[in-house]
Amino acid sequence: MPTVFGAGHDNFDKTLYDTVVDDSRGYVSGGAYIGRAMPAAADQLHEIELKDPQTYYAKGLKRRFLEQRRQMHLAPGLAALEELNDKHPISLPSGSNKAYAEWGRLLKTTAPLAVQVRSMEQATVRRLLELTDRLYLLRGKDIDTVTSTWIWSLLARLDDVGTMDNDEVCAIRDLGKKAVLVQLSFRDSAAAKQLDDLGARSSPEAFNPAEVSLEDEEDDATNGTPTTPSNTAIGIPAKRQNTLATLDMIITVVGDVFGQRDLLEFRQKWEATVGASKSTLS
């Protein structure tokens, strides 16, 4: 048996180094062989994003939501729990008009604390989403930034859709459908009203929204929405931009994360605005 082993030599056409013909690895220039540069993945990705920025926005939104959901399912620490007080409740008793009225005010005026949302039971989260739906997802009405933050946080606090029963999934789907309806109302109010009338819920109500009195609705310091919305370069007031972004977020999350993918086709398509450097909703 020989004491030295050697690997076999590959047989390849060395003339490739003397010509550019059929050589995908490089070429000869000035007597030197130059390897071809690998495709720039970042440049290619940027080019694709320019072609369809809405698709990549939606993917980025989903990634941020999944991270937020992970955060909202962490157990709150003892030190954080000390932040909770009467101004930051963690429950909503079913059928209590007084509690519903208080929460109706908080959902508009007081931003949520992370520990507050983490401490909520699933039943409370679902009731708060339903209350938000009924009070603040209204045709032709803008959504405050504090309310938007609550919707984002409450959706993130929900458990995986695979753990929900049919009624719970239907409630999430109804939220997505309501967002589609409100979104439509900013483009075609008559069509939105007609759809709303056709889809009016006929199930018994756990409480009467008309009996919920929202007193002292003045925004406090936690509400970053300006009193007079400033117009942007594309002419859309800041509050309306927040509203459209919130509705788009609800449809995207309900559709892509909670399995109601048929709702995604109702998202408003972005189109370039003449004279603007960014895209806007059509």
From TrEMBL:
Residue ranges of the TM segments: none
Amino acid composition bias (Polar residues), ranges on this chain: 222-233
InterPro entries on file: Gemin2/Brr1
Region (Disordered): 200-236
Domain of life: Eukaryota
GO terms for cellular component: nucleus; SMN complex
Pfam families attached to this UniProt entry: SIP1
GO biological-process terms attached to the record: spliceosomal snRNP assembly
Protein family membership: Belongs to the gemin-2 family.
UniProt xrefs under PANTHER family: GEM-ASSOCIATED PROTEIN 2, GEMIN2
The protein, known as: Uncharacterized protein
Species name: Baudoinia panamericana (strain UAMH 10762) (Angels' share fungus)
